[in-house]
Amino acid sequence: xxxxxxxxxGGGYNKQVPPQAWADFDKYVRLAAEYxxxxxxxxxxxxxxxxxxINIGRAAGWDRDKLWSLAQAxxxxxxxxxxxxxxxxxxxxxxxxxxxxxxxxxxxxxVERTRKERGMELYARLYSAAAAxxxxxxxxxxxxxxxxxxxxxxxxxxxxYPSAWNLNRFAYFAxxxxxxxxxxxxxxQIGPKPQLNxxxxxxxxxxxxxxxxxxxx
Length: 217
Known about the structure:
Elements: H1 2-9, H2 19-38, H3 40-43, H4 47-60, H5 64-77, H6 83-92, H7 100-118, H8 121-135, H9 139-142, H10 147-160, H11 164-176, H12 180-190, H13 203-215
Helix pairs in contact: 1-2, 2-4, 4-5, 4-6, 5-6, 6-8, 7-8, 8-10, 10-11, 11-12, 12-13
């Protein structure tokens, strides 16, 4: 029902939504919330129901403190469900009437909450998601993201989940930060077959430009 509502609204900014689409969007968001509430005794045994309700709440314009409370309830059931953090993060982005300062405060709060078990991992995860959803190549100039913290986060992430997927994303942000030694080292680890879907918009050109820049003396 929620996805059906979004099919009427589309994924653009509010000003891009046709006026006649709002009624159908609001109708299906409301139906989704009512259905989930009616089956809460079953649904909320799984933390993904909390994540779905956060997405419903974002669509319905619920207070962000309420969304964070829902996330915390889900985290108690499943501390490994990072989708709960990501759902709240989305509601704080400027495109949803949030701000870079709100995003930064939230990420700092999450890192403080998880640092004992996961180091700076979620700093990198969440800011990477913020880049994918809004800031793109301008993450380090238009948001509160700090490269030393992101670098530490990617190192923690790669230590926990070693993969080419994470390595390519790490290299992409190292290039954006103009950290040439780190970029060159990561590109050497990646080898001749990059995963271009981890290199942001216009990925092929971004990768080629970063590789050429990193190799220059």
